[in-house]
Amino acid sequence: MGKQGSPRGRRVENQDLDISFGVKENEFRSLDMQYGGDPPVGRRLSGGDYNWDKVVLTKGMKNDSAKFAPCKGVYVGKRQMWWLHRHIRSIVFTLLLMGFLYLLDSLLFSIFDPAMLQNNFSLQGSSKAEVEMVPRAAKEGPVKLYERLLNMAASSLAEREFKQESSKLWEEPYPQASSWKPCADKTSPHVVRAGKPRNITGYILISANGGLNQQRVAVCNAVAVASLLNATLVIPKFLYSNVWKDPSQFGDIYQEDYFMDMLKDEVNIIKELPPNLKLLDVEAAGSLITDAELSKEATPDEYIKKILPLLLRNRVVHFLGYGNRLGFDPLSSELQRLRCKCNFHALKFVPEIQQIGSLLVRRIRRYDIARSTLDKQLLGNLIPHVPLRHYHAAEGPSKYLALHLRFEIDMVAYSMCEFGGGETEKSELQTYREVHFPLLLERLKKSKPLSPQELRKMGKCPLTPEEAGLVLAGLGFKHGTYIYLAGSDIYGGQSRMQALTTLYPNLVTKEDLLTPSELAPFRNFSSQLAALDFIACATSDVFAMTDSGSQLSSLVSGFRTYYGGGHAPTLRPSKKRLSAILSRNKTIGWHSFEGKIRKMIDEGQRVQVRGLGRSIYRHPRCKECMCRH
After folding, report:
1. Sign of the Cα pseudo-torsion (586, 590, 594, 596, in order)
2. Are strands 203-208 and 288-289 parallel, antiparallel or unpaired?
3. I want to staple 624 with a disulfide (CB 3.0 to 4.6 A). Which of 316, 336, 465, 539 is the partner?
4. Is residue 506 within 8 Å of residue 119, measured between CB atoms?
5. What is the mean pLDDT of residues 15-19?
């Protein structure tokens, strides 16, 4: 054990937590306390060695005085006064010297400590985020559910830091993935022979709900429905949501002319209704279709029986709040291919989003050149395809992992799970449900709700940042791995994130990588901000999702499958299996934990053809979307 008052004094049993590879010193002071080490003592206690000497000196004086009989007290008192008088200058000098050293130490700490923190991660803006994290986390109190596993993960990262990292972490494990190639943009012989439909049955309006990714699905479903009903599609509208609070419309996110041109041989698409139909009261005419009129994932037969007669009679049908209202099976191969063509080829982000998206990707990679087909498809010509004159291509790009951490308050509250925050967390989430999810609470009153423990066992609980960090550590990603974090505000803030950022401090968001002026045009438009996350996740070297039900994760993983060429691995942890593994957190050994995590992820990466009823946007490996060579 170090000397009392020493700045580096730690208990021996906590040495495995000292993974301070450039990480802030004050973070690890708080870690010492959390993991049962000595309480933090700040910086040096002035006179650490002097205090020890003073104790010895005092004891020496007591021992010496004990040698004298009580009758000699006067003599002893005079002798002590004589000793103090003789050494007073030395004592004063020593005290002044220690005071000077203390002030010098404080001055040097204030000068060099921020620089040390900033050098911990050289990417723009990251230091600021980490500096702010410590006092806020200390104030709120970090929530940790798996301290023992975190302890072992930290020790493993320390041991692994100077070892060669396995290249397999950054590669698709199965070579069969590279045999699938994109081909949904190829017009089928049937369409070429038939040409564009001439006898139009009417016009389809859609108002899509949700955020960016739900709207994307709705648009491509509407394209397939327009083709099915031989109708003309009007450029979709996006509904304003009190949750998303984004007034963005189709043309603010996607290139309208490109969208229309890409699909012109198969679907009639116009920007507005003809003037003679604009004044039609669609609701009064009975042509306003809501979710109540259509089944979820409705079949083509349902559209033909319910929607086509309305279309023929009124010439217009308006799908209000349209989303996932077209099933994946049974559906003709041609309509499936059209869905894929829409999603993977026709929907291109506007140049303003592409430009900032390219800045985002180039800054995290520290590399200015397009590296893959994914770059080309998402960023177009706004990322160079040849080296710039001043750029040394030999330096190579920095690899990064994109993590979509779906742990916002809406997701957490809706899950009905518990996350270690006690009564405060329960009260806060219940209040949120009462305001935002009253229908959920009404449904729960009519049935016996499952307990939080049962929900977790069933894999119904979103992964916490702590759990995400343990999965990455179990897979073998090193402490210095660059991680791009996608998503909105994490529930619990910096306190909840502390476990993850301690294991992986090189974690950044778009707010860290882009300047305020670069982000300003997108500030009040959540869908446009989500488009930046979509780009950064899809073009990453590895993409890790924490919730397979998330639309962003589903669409990004599908995009990487379609354009990745077998070189864009995606990590898909099973929440149910992970829950079973973590239920043994008090007894499981680290090597056993690593083996189970790797097996779980490996099984999610196997190359499989789309199964019946599975989303074609997420699983494009099928004859309708991709060609196998």
Report:
1. negative
2. unpaired
3. 336
4. no
5. 38
